[in-house]
Amino acid sequence: MLNKLIGLFSNDMAIDLGTANTVVSIRGKGIIINEPSVVAVQHDRYGKDKILAVGQEAKQMIGKTPLNIQAVRPMKDGVIADFEMTERMIRYFIEKAHSRKSFIRPRIIICIPFGITQVEKKAVKESAISAGAREVFLVEEPMAAAIGAGIPVSDPSGYVVVDIGGGTTEIGVTSLGGLVLCKSIKVAGDRFDKAIMDYVRQNYNLYIGERTAESIKIEIGTAIKLEKELKIKVKGRDNSGLLSTIELGSEGVRTAIKEPLKEIVSAVKSVLEDMPPDLASDIVDNGVILTGGGALIKGLDTYLADIIKLPVKVADEPLLAVAYGTSNVLNQAELLKLITNE
Questions:
Q1: Which residues neighbour 9 within 8 Å (Cβ) at sequence distance 6 or greater?
Q2: Are residues 204 and 309 in the same domain?
Q3: Does 11 have pLDDT greater than 80?
Q4: Pair (128, 17) in one structural domain
Q5: Is residue 150 part of a domain?
Q6: Each residue's pLDDT tens digit, 152-198
Q7: Could you point out which of 20, 126, 131, 265 has its C-alpha 20 to 30 Å from the C-alpha of 312?
Q8: How does it assemble (predicted)?
Q9: pLDDT tens digit sequence for 213-247
């Protein structure tokens, strides 16, 4: 009873704590924060750290900071790589989202990758509690992605969701409010970026940074041959140390990201091979749904469908599917109980 009463005055929130972006929703208000998971830290001569910026402002500093300032991504491959910075980042987003007028600490639901260890789960919970949460619930990413993509997860019918995020790709099979099968691989958006950086260096002798590679991926990244090749001007530093500009085509990017795409397809096929026969017939009808930023790579649905011989479609708002799913769990008490088993 007391919890219900407290809940009336608390700005409960849902956090999609992603490798690339952190999205925060408030119950009844929807998404209010969508910023990169980056923290800019200044180191002074006494060995103390000072947070200069978090989110979008910090991301602008990547690759451009002086020696005493470092732009840190505390999440790596879908898990916490730097616990202190993650806690500071969560605290920043909670303080930014939570009403200063409210004295009641919020309940928070945090989305986590499938398969992280109990130690890592505990670290996420402790980070949120230290950052000001009253109570913390964890939801696995494939389930949140499925809910956000509009899949009726509580039905006795099987659905496959492939969430291609920044650090991990999660492939989940949902039925009756749970994950029947799931596989998580550390091949996703960051690997695409690195593959593009390596390709440009090896083929054009040009060194580019993460932000440039990400822009190339977004602008002309494709999994299939396009009818009309897209081109983009790319600036960087060549082998002689001089600044240079090249023209890069979508065919080059397709070649660059071919290997990471093959690894994702291989993981999808391994999940399909382990599918219980009764669920397999559902998947033939329902197909595969793509979510996450990686789903926006041009022609990825066609590329995957040609290989696995099943219908593949991209969710309506793939970038926000996990955030929407986490937010939906926050707003529905029965769904929260079903999904988190709490």
A1: 102, 104
A2: no
A3: no
A4: yes
A5: no
A6: 988 889 999 999 999 999 999 998 888 899 999 999 999 999 999 99
A7: 20
A8: Forms polymers.
A9: 999 999 999 999 999 999 999 999 988 888 999 99
Within-domain flag for 197: yes
Report residue 252 as tokens.
């080059």
My answer on whether 164 and 305 are in the same domain is yes
Name the residue among 54, 87, 90 with its Cα closest to residue 72.
Answer: 54
> Residue 233 belongs to what domain range?
189-256
Residue 273 covered by a domain: yes
Distances (CA, A) of 136 to 12, 13, 323, 328: 10, 10, 16, 16
Q: Which residues are annotated as a binding site for ATP?
A: 19-21, 166-168, 214-217, 293-296
Chain-wide mean pLDDT for the chain? Answer: 88
* pLDDT tens string 250-305: 999 999 999 999 999 999 999 999 998 888 899 999 999 999 999 999 999 999 99
252, part of any domain: yes
**Up-side HSE of residue 85: CA atoms within 13 Å toward CB?**
26
